């Protein structure tokens, strides 16, 4: 759970959790487990976090990573497996409508005398 929230930090978030654990395993004599964790962390976790996530989430969503994470988890909790797509879609639509409404309310309105 901690790694899921720290993965919101770009580039090093998940490594803040798995790398110290790998060092602990190496220091306590569990060399094979430590080496496997370093290889898995650098290979799989690093690949998913830094390479695949921008393609899966999309670079042009302009949504912060934490909004994508929360909307994905909420979507899965409410809609099941379809929530993987529906949750972020609802969040993106909400952000778009919020932006349109705020621009509309911020523009000066011409007052007419009746």
Automatic annotation (TrEMBL):
Protein origin, superkingdom: Bacteria
Location relative to the cell: Membrane
Keywords assigned: Membrane, Transmembrane, Transmembrane helix
Main location group: membrane
Transmembrane found in the keyword field: yes
Membrane protein topology class: Multi-pass membrane protein
Cellular component terms (Gene Ontology): membrane
Spans through the membrane: 24-48, 68-101
Family assignment from sequence similarity: Belongs to the autoinducer-2 exporter (AI-2E) (TC 2.A.86) family.
Name of the protein: AI-2E family transporter
Species of the source: Methyloceanibacter marginalis
